[in-house]
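WARN no homologs supplied; continuing
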Amino acid sequence: MKRRVIPSKPVRQLGAKREILRRLDTATSALVGLARSGGARLTRAEMCERLGVSSNTLTARIRRGDVPTPGKDGKWLLAELIEWESGI
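OK structure emitted
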């Protein structure tokens, strides 16, 4: 008779956490794809609101390279921001 080994609770939890992370990655990728296809762009004011900073702080962060630079039109592509925020 073959005995069935039941994983301990921590092993099951680790598997569940990995599955949640996998699903989050999939959802993030889908969101990036949608944003790219729509080409949504954020203005400076919207970017400041998204990051919770003032315009001067945003400028300083861009100069330091802490925040992606805007496009030639002065706006940020939403898909690129989502990738940057999620660290993809």
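The beta strands are 41-42, 76-77.
OK
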